[in-house]
Design brief:
Calcium-transporting ATPase, cytoplasmic domain N, Rossmann fold, alpha/beta, disordered C terminus
């Protein structure tokens, strides 16, 4: 007898009723009636058992009455090695009844009393149901008054009678399909490791886009027969690992890591703990996960949603990218300050007072660096290739940008100092203007650092309100240093005529225009002519 959990069934049929009794008694979930104004029944326990209990309840089974009539005398909890569980129940004026529930291939091995033809038909039915993405469970029973828990289920081999197959379907969330596609685009390859049947896992993986044409599904038995070389050779084509035990999950993780892959592992059960601990990033499910899994993992997902994990990857890339923006900004501006001070080597007077350099480092830079960390996503984070494990913060690309930014800041600042000093202007005014040129250069340079490829004019300053606020605060503080007499004396500045501010801004903006020219040149090289397009980014 075949049924799908949750589908209407006819419990007047003796065989169907027996199956409903089996999934009700061999079950660890609890059915809770409506209470405290609630209109619906609720179930407590494992999701699979809960679905089975709900199906029995919808079929008209009085769960509580049935359980009172057949009290549980013994239990063998589900075991990932046997892939079965069993419960023993007292029956009035009859031998005790044992109910077995688990993977069809495991349960059917115990059911020789049904005849080879019936068992063959059941196996074919289970394969067919699994091929339609159904999670299939077989339910059997044994009349055994001397059920020995210590002997395990092997003691029941050849004595069980098959009651039927139950198919459950857990439709993938729509956002999971989108998340799987985003993973592919981001250079992340999702692999399904499931306790379901191989065909069930493959059907779901194809629906999600995890498995593509030519990809394979391998079950635990096939994996056991593979040596390390065969596993490594097949990893690129295996999209689904099914019916694997804890040691095999650990083996899969280690095999991927041996190729240099960075592995993130998700799991919720006790059996997932070794693989979660061994993975580079172990992610435990916060709702359905066990405490053991949560303790072994580095991250706990609070909503058990794969799309949330993918979103976390995107945010991680945003944070890492913003960190590199800050490093680029600080490195380029600090090196420029050093170059400006080399004016002493050329025989010039000191272009900046020590307190002015301190102001630049603490106030001018401090008001924008933290705000740069708050930069919103560029929008293409999930189209970039993954960052290598050994990626350097000061990469070659960053050093090339520093090699352009630093001389331009130094040239604009030192050039202004030399030009204005040659005009017989008072030294205090020249130094104040040089101090202001350097500050304005840094304001323009923080806009340069927002993206390595996109124009600062395209991004717009308003995209990051925190940076806008920081720049505004920095400008106000700089104006205070220039035009408030008490600070003039402290920072060795004099008021700059307003008419001279526009040339200062124009000269300092050369830092921005130089970087814009570099971005335009790099973009033209990257795109290239239409007949020779650039390779895809993922």
């Amino acid at each position: 007898m075949l049924t799908e959990a949750g589908a209407p069934v006819d419990v007047t049929d003796v065989a169907v009723a027996a199956l409903m009794h089996g999934i009700t008694l061999c079950n660890g979930a609890e059915l809770v009636p409506p209470q405290d104004g609630m209109a619906q029944w609720t179930v407590l326990g494992d999701p699979t058992d809960s679905a089975l209990l709900a199906a029995a309840g919808k079929a008209g089974i009085d769960v509580r009455r049935l359980r009172r009539g057949f009290p549980r005398a013994a239990e063998l909890p589900f075991d990932s090695d046997t892939k079965m569980m069993a419960t023993c129940h007292a029956v009035a004026k009859a031998p005790r009844r044992v109910f077995i529930k688990g993977a069809p291939e495991a349960v059917l091995r115990l059911c020789v009393t049904d005849g080879e033809a019936a068992l063959h038909a059941a196996r074919e039915a289970a394969e067919c149901m699994a091929g339609h993405a159904l999670r299939v469970l077989a339910v059997a029973t044994v009349a055994d008054d001397q059920f020995d828990v210590a002997a395990g289920l092997d003691a029941l081999a050849g004595r069980a009678t098959l009651l039927g197959l139950v198919g459950q379907i857990d439709p993938p969330r729509e956002e999971a399909k989108v998340a799987a596609a985003e993973c592919r685009l981001a250079g992340i390859r999702p692999i399904m490791v499931t306790g379901d049947h191989r065909l069930t896992g493959l059907a779901i993986a194809r629906e999600l886009g995890i498995a593509r044409d030519g990809d394979l599904a391998v079950d635990g038995a096939e994996l056991e027969r593979m040596n390390e070389a065969e596993l490594l050779e097949g990893l690129d084509r295996i999209a689904v690992f099914a019916r694997v035990h804890p040691a095999q999950k650990l083996r899969i993780v280690e095999a991927l890591q041996s190729r240099g892959d960075v592995v993130a592992m998700t799991g919720d059960g006790v059996n997932d703990a070794p693989a979660l601990a061994r993975a580079d990033v172990g992610v435990a499910m916060g709702i359905s996960g066990t405490e053991v899994a949560k303790s072994a993992a580095r991250i706990v997902s609070t909503d058990d949603n794969f799309a949330t994990i993918v979103g976390a990857v995107e945010q991680g890339r945003v944070v890492y990218g913003n960190l590199k923006k800050v490093i680029l900004y600080l490195f380029a501006t600090s090196m420029a300050e050093v170059l400006v001070l080399l004016a002493l080597v050329l025989g010039y007077r000191l272009p900046l007072a020590a307190v002015q350099i301190l102001w630049i480092n603490i106030v001018t830079e401090g008001t924008v660096t933290v705000n740069l960390v708050m930069d919103p996503p560029d929008g293409d984070e999930m189209k970039r290739t993954p960052v290598p494990r050994n990626d350097r913060l000061l990469s070659g690309e960053m050093l090339r940008r520093v090699a352009l930014m630093t001389p331009m800041i130094a040239l604009a600042t030192f050039g202004w100092f030399v030009w204005r000093q040659a005009g017989d202007m008072p030294y205090e005014m020249v130094r104040t203007e040089t101090f202001t040129v350097l500050a304005v250069c840094q304001w323009f340079n923080v806009l340069n650092c927002q993206s390595a490829t996109r124009s600062a004019l395209q991004f717009g300053i308003f995209r990051n309100r925190w940076l806008l606020a920081g720049l505004s605060l920095s400008m106000m503080l700089q104006a205070t240093v220039l035009y408030w007499p008490p600070l003039n004396e402290l920072f060795h500045t004099v008021p700059i005529p307003l008419a001279d501010l526009l040339p200062i801004v124009a000269v300092a903006s050369l830092v921005l225009w130089t970087e814009e020219a570099r971005k335009l040149f790099a973009s033209s090289r990257r795109v290239g002519p239409a007949r020779n397009p650039a390779p895809p980014t993922a």
